[in-house]
Amino acid sequence: MTTARDIMTADATCVRSSDTALDAAKKMAELGVGAMPICGEDNKLKGMLTDRDIVVKVLAEGKDVRALSAGELAQGEAVTIGADDSADEILRTMTEHRVRRLPVIDGHTLVGVVSQADVARALPNPSTGELVEALSYDA
Question: Which of 13, 14, 57, 102 could join 81 via S-S bond, C-beta 3.0 to 4.6 A?
Fold first, then answer.
């Protein structure tokens, strides 16, 4: 059985909830990623931050990227997946919550992130196609 641990990108780097949106954007650019987990000073996951969040919720609204914190952009509790959860559970969770990235948790520790691209590389084409269709459909 393929698990989240098998297909995740390990060692996910967090942006601190106290970091500014500008700091977060610079980290994303440096790492070449479009999303990062937001972690508090206690190292606990607080949410996910995407490059789209920064554009839509900060820049497009004329807010100051140097003044707004990443934590202020976190939206409620992050949708996560367990490290030992199956590929079927990953697909179900991504589809149900309409998310393209899932933080992977082992106990209370963030151990990685599963992205739509990770799923596409690891799973057979029919499963991947169903996921892409589900995430691309505007309800």
Answer: 102
